[in-house]
UniProtKB/TrEMBL annotation:
<protein>
    <submittedName>
        <fullName>tRNA A37 threonylcarbamoyladenosine dehydratase</fullName>
    </submittedName>
</protein>
<dbReference type="GO" id="GO:0061503">
    <property type="term" value="F:tRNA threonylcarbamoyladenosine dehydratase"/>
</dbReference>
<keyword id="KW-0472">Membrane</keyword>
<dbReference type="GO" id="GO:0061504">
    <property type="term" value="P:cyclic threonylcarbamoyladenosine biosynthetic process"/>
</dbReference>
<dbReference type="InterPro" id="IPR045886">
    <property type="entry name" value="ThiF/MoeB/HesA"/>
</dbReference>
<dbReference type="InterPro" id="IPR035985">
    <property type="entry name" value="Ubiquitin-activating_enz"/>
</dbReference>
<feature type="domain" description="THIF-type NAD/FAD binding fold">
    <location>
        <begin position="10"/>
        <end position="239"/>
    </location>
</feature>
<dbReference type="InterPro" id="IPR000594">
    <property type="entry name" value="ThiF_NAD_FAD-bd"/>
</dbReference>
<keyword id="KW-0812">Transmembrane</keyword>
<dbReference type="Pfam" id="PF00899">
    <property type="entry name" value="ThiF"/>
</dbReference>
<feature type="transmembrane region" description="Helical">
    <location>
        <begin position="216"/>
        <end position="233"/>
    </location>
</feature>
<keyword id="KW-1133">Transmembrane helix</keyword>
<dbReference type="GO" id="GO:0008641">
    <property type="term" value="F:ubiquitin-like modifier activating enzyme activity"/>
</dbReference>
Length: 239
């Protein structure tokens, strides 16, 4: 056990830390939510992580995304995050895929490795549904992030089954698409019950696969990411 993990072992015990170290977590989407989830997973001692994202850092990401700074604008998010995670744990076995997910890529991804848990931090519907249905079909454990934009109250964040979500447009769209696929429940999510500020939503067709852009505050996506990581760490600790 390395010194940097001593406080984790002190809290959770040697056997639990060993379970975390022998786990492989897949994080799809490493923007405002996913990057924080990935870092918390890494700092907890998970030794194998796969991160997926096709985006480069944009100036508009700086207000909320862990890897977004003026010095990283234009650089691939996965590469910036991988460097950061390896600086936390130089022994980390990290797999990087710089790509936009689609149904074909999802099938390949889920079949090419064994994942102990999947974190879905995708913010567009089609690849999100492909990942969730793919995990369910293969009985891979998954937790999914719903919308963090347009909100400011961290006390309204909660865990729920996808069937129990409300006041979230992304969750509503996910529920509809899952229902079309014959799925009505069985996916754990992190969501906010806070009504989003409608004035913070701008309709647009300019961004890839997005019908709107939503105003965000610095801390909400980070807390979503921590909720995702906390759930996964607890579940892996029970192995």
């Amino acid at each position: 056990m390395e010194e940097w993990l001593s406080r984790t072992e002190q809290l959770l015990g040697k056997d639990t830390l060993s379970a975390l170290q022998n786990s492989h977590v897949l994080i799809v989407g490493v923007g405002g939510v996913g990057a924080y989830a990935a870092e918390m997973i890494c700092r907890a001692g998970v030794q194998e992580i796969t991160i997926i994202d096709g985006d480069n850092v944009n100036p508009t990401n700086i207000n909320r995304q862990l890897i977004a700074m003026h010095s990283t604008v234009g650089k691939p998010k996965t590469q910036i995050l991988a460097q950061r995670l390896l600086d936390i744990n130089p022994r980390l076995n990290i797999h990087i895929k710089q790509l936009y997910m689609d149904e074909v890529q999802t099938e390949i991804l889920l079949d090419e490795a064994k994942y102990d848990y999947v974190i879905d931090a995708i913010d567009t519907i089609s690849p999100k549904i492909a990942l969730l249905t793919g995990c369910l079909k293969r009985k891979i454990k998954v937790i999914s992030s719903m919308g963090a934009g347009g909100r400011i109250d961290p006390t309204r964040i909660a865990y729920a089954d996808i069937s129990e979500t409300y006041h979230c447009a992304l969750a509503k769209a996910v529920r509809k698409r899952l229902k079309d696929a014959g799925i009505s429940k069985g996916i754990k999510v992190v969501f906010s019950s806070e009504q989003p500020d409608r004035n913070a939503i701008i309709r647009t067709d300019e961004e890839r696969n997005k019908k709107s852009t939503v105003g965000t505050i610095s801390y909400l996506p980070a807390i979503f990411g921590c909720y995702l990581a906390a759930y996964v760490i607890r579940k892996l600790s029970q192995k």
